[in-house]
Design brief:
This is NAD(P)-dependent dehydrogenase (Short-subunit alcohol dehydrogenase family). Keywords: NADP, Oxidoreductase. One of its GO terms (molecular function) is oxidoreductase activity, acting on the CH-OH group of donors, NAD or NADP as acceptor. It holds the Pfam family adh_short. Helix 3 runs parallel beside helix 4. Helix content is 41%, strand content 14%. Helix 1 links the parallel strand 1 and strand 2. It has a single domain, classed as Rossmann fold. The protein is built from 8 helices and 8 strands. The N and C termini lie far apart (40 Å). By secondary structure, it is α/β, with parallel strands linked by helices. It has an 8-stranded mixed β-sheet with strand order 3-2-1-4-5-6-7-8, with helices on both faces.
Length: 246
Amino acid sequence: MPSDKKVAFISGANRGIGFETARQLGQKGVTVIVGARTLQEAKAAADKLTSENIEAHAVVLDVTKEADRKAAAAFVADKFGKLDILINNAGIGGEGGLLNAHTIETTESEFQTVFNTNLYSVVAVTREFLPLLKKSAAGRIVNLSSILGSLTLQAMPNSPIAPMKAFAYNASKTALNQFTVHLAIELKDTNIKVNSAHPGWVKTELGTQYAQMEIADGAKTSVDLALIGPDGPNGKFIHAGKELPW
């Protein structure tokens, strides 16, 4: 049933930045719905959050599966009647990690796999949840991007991200940023705001143990964008409250 309490859905929320995002939103009084590829993973994460006095629910969501996407949206519709926050957190890296520079050698298989999760499925998940977000007084969509998708910084001589040229992954995040820009403009006359978040170089499975930031800090940008007010950014690329170049 509809209520005044904010409801957030986070994909890929069973671990890493997604789980920490759910935790931090829950600590701020938001009801969180944990999306994960298996019910076991989703339930384990939701149970852990519940043990911390956070209202959390488990939902199966393999973002690449249409049936999962439709079932997840149906669950939210039946349980809450609306959705206030959608955080498209689920994503994957390419072959060989972020430092394994390969461009022309990128395989068709890598392109298809990475783009299917990091772009096509984000669009599809958002499409399913958009009717519920339109029922919110202040809908918020946060797309987990990466500074590696910045064309400006990738092309800059002596850029700090210059060594990271994993083409399929980087290109998928550039394309995701385009989705953010286009959707924000399409929804500009609604109460919904859409932004891309760069979490930072975080100590996750993808970021590796050599990353500079802890997971708790990596989740903060997503949480902040999920809770922005009516004067907050829209159609922007943000890290730690600062706008990044496309």
